[in-house]
TrEMBL record, chain A:
<comment type="similarity">
    <text>Belongs to the BolA/IbaG family.</text>
</comment>
<dbReference type="GO" id="GO:0006950">
    <property type="term" value="P:response to stress"/>
</dbReference>
<dbReference type="InterPro" id="IPR045115">
    <property type="entry name" value="BOL2"/>
</dbReference>
<feature type="region of interest" description="Disordered">
    <location>
        <begin position="73"/>
        <end position="95"/>
    </location>
</feature>
<protein>
    <submittedName>
        <fullName>BolA-like protein 2</fullName>
    </submittedName>
</protein>
<dbReference type="GO" id="GO:0006879">
    <property type="term" value="P:intracellular iron ion homeostasis"/>
</dbReference>
<dbReference type="InterPro" id="IPR036065">
    <property type="entry name" value="BolA-like_sf"/>
</dbReference>
<dbReference type="GO" id="GO:0005829">
    <property type="term" value="C:cytosol"/>
</dbReference>
<feature type="compositionally biased region" description="Polar residues">
    <location>
        <begin position="80"/>
        <end position="95"/>
    </location>
</feature>
TrEMBL record, chain B:
<dbReference type="GO" id="GO:0046872">
    <property type="term" value="F:metal ion binding"/>
</dbReference>
<dbReference type="InterPro" id="IPR004480">
    <property type="entry name" value="Monothiol_GRX-rel"/>
</dbReference>
<keyword id="KW-0408">Iron</keyword>
<dbReference type="InterPro" id="IPR036249">
    <property type="entry name" value="Thioredoxin-like_sf"/>
</dbReference>
<keyword id="KW-0479">Metal-binding</keyword>
<dbReference type="InterPro" id="IPR049620">
    <property type="entry name" value="GIY-YIG_AtGrxS16"/>
</dbReference>
<keyword id="KW-0411">Iron-sulfur</keyword>
<dbReference type="GO" id="GO:0051537">
    <property type="term" value="F:2 iron, 2 sulfur cluster binding"/>
</dbReference>
<comment type="similarity">
    <text>Belongs to the glutaredoxin family. CGFS subfamily.</text>
</comment>
Length: 95, 299
């Protein structure tokens, strides 16, 4: 496998975790391939943050061999995501 | 002695020393008296500023940062840690410590005034009777140094003396560089045949130590941004932790691969508390932001 692309990461996560929201940002720099991920999936329901990260890491096990850094910014359930969006919205409305 | 020009004194005369500068590249002669627990939170300082302050032109700030020494109220030094946090600001600024005869002993700058004065109280309680505090609004190094200089100059002008604690050779008020713990080594060296599998050494290590961080590089010089952030958070929490450099091929040879399997976690840094993997940098940051770390470390 050559250099991992953002599209590869996206399609792998899409197929394995069936996310309702997914954002992959390519932050590759001097050190090698590097990504930031925001992901919302029903599969996170009832799982601790550690286990959610494990799911993401597990889904990307092949890609991880070539990825220098993976930063999981958010791993939320659809419910949490909705709440967060709403609170952000009301915060920005208030401002 | 008539008037003393402080800047020339600093530059030419060895008789006045501006705090201690223990980092060799520190050309400013200024170093902050801040306990390690607060020194790592610098980047957040500017974020706490109200919007209106952020874009104020610099020229307005310097010089107007703190009130004159003589106009600043002298307040008694609190006696307990709790009182400190309520009675003294945890902001950046300049402070002057007075003994029980109201003699000025030391003028310092800090990124956390309350914490600095508290450390002084612990190290020289008999000389810390009261304190004057000047918070500096936009606390970059220049502004802080200016504030410090203006107080020093004012005091020297008024009394013809340098505060005893700021005199050259007086180490009473100056924090010694914190002794960083050494990183732990898993093996005696790669030439030594292990009698116990590496996995078992890892297992023992994380179970025998409350908090263990496996990082890239040493704790004093982490080699990757994520490890650096983790060290920063742990120091900021003031937690007593052990660190293991996973890049140390001499003493931790084979650790990276074995640890990944042991913890079923593909990346570094990895943080263990009470023998259990907490996660990597993202998880630690997220817990830090939610304020969940203190209770985790108390367990």
């Amino acid at each position: 496998m050559g250099k991992v692309t953002k599209e590869q990461v996206e399609s792998t996560l899409q197929s394995k975790l069936n996310p309702s929201h997914l954002e992959v940002i390519d932050t590759s720099g001097g050190c090698g391939a590097s990504f930031e991920i925001e992901i919302v999936s029903e599969q996170f329901e009832g799982k601790r943050l550690l286990e959610r990260h494990r799911l993401v890491n597990g889904a990307l096990v092949e890609e991880m061999k070539e990825i220098h850094a993976l930063s999981i910014k958010k791993a939320a359930t659809p419910d949490q995501w909705r709440q967060q969006q709403e609170s952000e919205k009301s915060a920005s409305n208030a401002a | 002695m008539a008037t003393i020009n402080l800047s020339s004194l600093q530059a030419s005369s060895p008789s006045l020393r501006f705090l201690s500068s223990y980092s060799p590249q520190n050309t400013l002669h200024a170093s902050f008296y801040s306990p390690s627990s607060s020194s790592l939170s610098f980047p957040s300082v500017s974020l706490k500023l109200p919007n209106t302050l952020r874009f104020r032109p610099r020229s307005l700030i310097i010089g107007a940062a703190a009130k004159a020494l003589s106009e600043t109220e002298l307040v008694p030094v609190p006696l307990t840690a709790e009182e400190f946090s309520t009675q003294l600001p945890s902001d950046s600024g300049v402070y002057a410590v007075y003994d029980k005869n109201d003699e000025l002993q030391f003028i310092g700058i800090s990124r956390n005034i309350a914490a600095s004065v508290y450390s002084h109280l612990k190290s020289v309680p008999d000389q810390c009777s009261s304190v004057k505090v000047g918070v500096v609004d936009q606390p970059d190094k220049t502004a802080l140094t200016e504030a410090w200089k203006s107080w020093m100059e004012e005091h020297i002008k008024a009394t013809g003396k340098v505060p005893p604690g700021n005199e050259s050779g007086n180490a009473t008020w100056i924090r010694q560089p914190p002794k960083k713990k050494a990183d732990l080594r898993l093996t005696p060296g790669r030439h030594v045949q292990l009698t116990v599998p590496l996995e078992e050494l890892i297992d023992r290590l994380v179970k025998e130590n409350k908090v263990v961080a496996f990082i890239k590089g040493s704790r004093s010089a982490p080699m990757c941004g994520f490890s650096q952030r983790v060290v920063g958070i742990l120091e900021n929490q003031g937690v007593d932790y052990e660190s293991v450099d996973v890049l140390d091929e001499e003493y931790n040879s084979g650790l990276r691969e074995t640890l990944k399997k042991y913890s079923n976690w593909p990346t570094f840094p990895q943080i263990f508390v009470n023998g259990e993997l907490v996660g990597g940098c993202d998880i630690l940051m997220s817990m830090h932001e939610k304020g969940e770390l203190a209770s985790l470390f108390k367990k």
